Amino acid sequence: MSKLKKVKNEIKCATQQIIVSRTNTDGDIVYCNPTFLEVNGFKSSEVIHKAHSIVRHPDMPKSIFKVIWSIIKQGLPIQAVIKNKTNDGYYYWTLITIKPQKDRDNKIISYVAYGKQAPDVVIKKIEPLYKTMKEIEEEVNIDTAIEYLESYLKEKNMTYAQYIKHLNKNRKFRCFCDFIKHVILR
Question: Can you give the pTM of this predicted structure?
Answer without folding.
Answer: 0.84
